[in-house]
Structures are given as C-alpha cells and as structure tokens.
Predict the structure.
Amino acid sequence: MFVRGLFYCLLSSFGLMPTLGYGHHSFAAEFIREVVTIEGVVTEVWFRNPHIRYYVEVQTQSGNTEIWDTRGGSATNYQRRGSWTRDSIKVGDRVVMTGNRGRDGRKLLDIRTVLLGDGTVLPPGAMLDYRHTD
Amino acid sequence: MLKKFYPLIACVGVPFGFVYAQESKEAGFSGNWMLELAVPPADVAGLLTLQHLGSEWVGHVEGGPVVVNVGGDQIELIIDSRDIAGFIFERRLLGRLTGNVMSGTLSIIGQPDSGESGSFWTARRASENEEIIGEPRFADLSGTWIPAAGMDFRKYSMDLTPEAKIWHQDYLLHLDQPNVRCVSPGIVAMIAWSAYPSEWLINEGRITIIYEVGSEVRRVYLDGREPPEYFPHSPMGFSTGYWEGGTFVIETTLLSRNVRDFLGEPVSENAKFVERYQLNEDGTILTAVMTLHDPENYLRPPIRRRQWHRDADAVLFPYECDPDSFFRQLYDEGKMQEYIDRADRRL
C-alpha cells in the first residue's frame, strides 16, 4: 500500500514529464497529450514488434469492466536492455499504468510507467532507453 | 537658390534613402544559409533558403516551407517541426543579420515532447550541397553504427506538388502508414529512425548494410553497374555508391511507392534518394545528409540529417514484426471495412 501511495504521489510529476521516447510511427495519430492512470488486471500479453501490448481489464466506478489496449515501444528495444522482458508482466498480474490516453475517448494507453503488484516500477530507468525515437 | 528646395529634398530624399538602405539591408538575407539551433543534448542543423520574390519573402528549411518576416536587418522565421511522437510544434526564430551571419533567439510554440525550450540560433552562408561537418576524406565505413541524438529538424510540412497534395489530403496515418501493419516504409523513411543500429559490411565492389529495424538488408554496388533488366521496384530500391572526395555518396532508384515520414507524404517510383556520408577525424562518428529528389511529389527536395556512433561491441537483434495489433484494433473498433475500402491509399 505504501508503495502504491508513493507511486501515486509521484504520478503528478510523471504527468508533467515530457514523453521520452516513442515508436517509429506517429503516436500523435492515435494518442493525445493527456496523461491518465489506470489500474486493473492483465488479460493478454503481446511482447512483439512493432510494439508491445498488454490488454488490461479495468473495474470502473460504476462497477462495470472495460478492456484497455495499452501499448509500449518495440519489443526489440526492450529486449536489448534486458530488464523489461516478455516475462516482466504476465497474464493475471495487477498493474497500475500511466500513459497518454487514446484519441476520441478510445480505451488506448501509450504506456509511460507500470507499477507491478510487488512494487516493481517499469521501466527501471529512463523511458528513453526502452522506447525508441523515430 | 538651391537652399529653398532643401526641405523638399529632405522630404523626398531622406525617406527614399531610408527605404533604399532598408531594401539594401533586406537584400542581404537572400540566398542559402546553414541554420544551426543550440538545442541540447545535440544541436539541430538544416538548410535555410530565403528568396525575395516581388514584395514577398519565401523561405524553406530542409525543403519545407517556413514563415518569413524581414524588416531592415531583422528577421523572424517560424518553422514547423514534429517531435519524436509525431506531435507538431513550431520554432520561432528572431534575429539580426550582421555581415554574413544571422543570429538570434529561439522560442517554442507548442509542447515538444523532447522538452525543448528557448535557446539561440545562428546561420551562415551555405551552398545547397555543402557538407556541414568535417573535411572530406576517404574513410573505412565498416562496422556497427548506433544512432546519435539530434541533427535532424524533423521539418513537418514539405512543398508538395498540387497532385501530391490532392493524394495526401485524405491520408489517415493510423490506417494507411505501411509500418503500422509491418510493411516496410522504405529506405527514405526508415533511415531517419534514430533508435536502431546498422551493420556495414565492406566487400569487393559492394557494401552490404544490414538494418536492425525490419531486419532489412541493402546492397550498395560500387562498380557503377546498372540494375539488372526487370529488377523490380522495392522499399529498399537499387543502390549504387561512389566516393566524391572523402564523401561516400549512395544513390538509390527503383523505389516502390512509399512514404517520406510520419506525415505520410508520398514517394514516387521515379524518385532518387541521395545520401552523402562523412566520417569524423577519429572515425567514430558518421554523419549523413539525405535528400529526396522526387519532382512528381515535391517542389523542393526534402532533406534530413543524421549521425551515428561506431560501436564495435554492438550486436544487431532480430526484428520480427507481427501486424496482429494493427488488425486486432481494427476488429475491436469496427474499422475493418474502412480499412478494406481504403485499398487505394496503400500506395
């Protein structure tokens, strides 16, 4: 709980940080600058190029569930660094993610940070090292 | 006798002289300039061209149009760029011409994701073909090259021909860009991506370049050969290379129809892509100026610049691409039919 509190405490500063790296196509085509936080359970893991993807089931305040399609950079760049691999986030994991919201209210998230249940925060370093620039 | 006309002379002559002096100063802006912005962590550089056509100033940076306002020895430039995510912002340059140098302050309109903020700029006289770093010399280009930050303006808009504008006006990035579905965007777009290394293998009469992204392979023939008959158009085209002084030049033709950059402007099958490479003194930094000659689509050739560091320990990783995420999203959002209906947009 403490870790999560600390994480949420840091979110405001994360939200103000410039995005440090992106995929090699225009993320502006699908995402907006607004940074949001979601919390849920991972239902599907896709650790491949052109970008990694996790489906996350989120419980809404009204008690409904919605599926978020969350995206990262290319799997190749993550693999090169070794500390965020295909095994880092598994189906069934509870995660708190921050990222850029999808356009037009779509349940898309361009991932900036991930908090795992054991307190691990991904990426462990600068996102620039994990997400590639154009 | 003349004295009584002094007021008239002053009335007409002084403003005329002032206007003449102003125009004389303003004429000094015309021509080609090498524009450099001090933008940490790495400077940005590009070719600025200024023309005085009638009463209008026309400006281009790296082949794309910019806003120009000139008054006396002062100038304002507004240059649209995109950040690494594809979001658009503008750089506003205010400065002054002193001799053959322009310099001034840089401010940002918008929010580039790089965090770039105010800074300074300079511009000095340049020719269109000037290489901006280092003296030319013969060099060994073999090895693995890691992209470096900076250099490229990421100029957003280009001077499209009327036909290209019509084709491009309905382009939808998230549906039409080839690489979102794991189709090669071609060498023109791909070579400017700054995240992936490449490996250069030097053989007799040939340089083979392996790019990590897309696991693309490219052969650059050094013996001046023509492409074989029936050689098809392709994303990597057909490349020949030669040394011009110490500059290694690659010319690529037989490109398939593709895209120039994030904006999705077209590259025609008749385009010629010219890359000019130079190595620094100690052989550790490779710099390229890359120009797309495609008069079917561009009134001025778009230019990009990149640098790479040599890294003997770097290993290229495999790069498999799976378009599942693209098609899955189409399915989830009910856009599959729209995608099918846009077949003509897929070049």
